[in-house]
């Protein structure tokens, strides 16, 4: 009876229990650095109060966990079936953002779309990114053994990827680049013929070069941020050879990175303690893009290793779930979403420790902000959904009524 009660309690956490525990631990932990770093928004940006920001963050965490659990009530195959519809709608939102997009919290890019009649704003690029990946997984799975003619790949695979890239790249270059990288990874894992993959990579490189060239030398792409990207790359490159650059110029251009480095060094092995960051007031975007530096300053190398270990456990569990799922669509979808999360975490941490130029990517489940956080919870909800179906497939078996090809065709 006691064992049955325990099982019923854990049934509320539908899906992989280890992954659930990791997500909950990271979610609860996120409250502390956000509470500390949000004082930057109150005293420097003059936006709201620290208490208000942390309560808002906690609300997003709760809503995110509810969304994550709610996704478990929908068969993931149905999400795949509706992916074309979702992708079309998010592309429409991206086009709308080009003309009516807004900036928030002093940001220079018009990435946000405001819901009419409400104070709520969101980033359509985050939704477009996810729906594109789900669409690709579904398309690559459907009738996987059939050889497609080139025009099908151009219209139904390469076209959507490049369209989303172009629409996102104007105001969010780092996300657009991540879309290309993850899409290519999905094409490879999805067993698309290597000749088409190589052709798409070549086409994508040409598209990126053309986009940058046109943006730098003409006015055809108005309001683009290509000059900002180039400046960040130049600043990053020069920071590695500062002897050739004027010190004052370097300090001005590389202020964010210098403050992030100082915060990480200041943290040492054990950190300054929760809420005791000395640089949260002077580090721009300390509550979002550079929150990892605040984590290291307050919790030290030990805290950083603990957080990274949690992310590694998350990725390992995702790979295990993908390997156990017999249906190709479920396995591919889990791996694709896992790559999305891994790339986002890796990019944020790499920026904070000055391994790559500043990109403006939030730290998954930690950074303050609504759209990215809720999308991440939705992604994890899909993974947990798939993991909960593994046991069902094992129990029902793959008999005449449910073989692999039929399961894949459901997608």
Estimate the global geometry from the Cα principal axes: globular
Strand order of the largest sheet: 1-2
Report the uncertain regions.
395-402
Largest sheet: 2 strands, antiparallel
Mean pLDDT figure: 81
Strand content: under 5%
Q: What is the CA–CA distance across the termini?
A: 39 Å
Structural class: mainly alpha
Estimate the helix proportion, in percent: 55-70%
Q: Which quaternary structure do these chains form?
A: single chain
Number of helices: 17
From the alpha-carbon coordinates, what is the Rg to the nearest angstrom?
Answer: 22 Å
Task: Explain the overall architecture.
- The protein is mostly helical and 411 residues long.
- It has 17 helices and 2 strands.
- Strand 1 (113-114) and strand 2 form a beta hairpin.
Keywords:
mainly alpha, 2 strands, 17 helices
Write the layout of secondary structure elements.
Elements: H1 2-11, H2 17-37, H3 39-43, H4 50-71, H5 76-81, H6 83-100, E1 113-114, E2 121-122, H7 124-141, H8 150-169, H9 173-189, H10 194-217, H11 226-239, H12 247-253, H13 255-267, H14 291-324, H15 328-352, H16 371-396, H17 404-410
Helix pairs in contact: 2-4, 2-14, 4-16, 6-7, 6-8, 7-8, 7-9, 7-15, 7-16, 8-9, 8-10, 9-10, 9-15, 13-14, 14-15, 14-16, 15-16
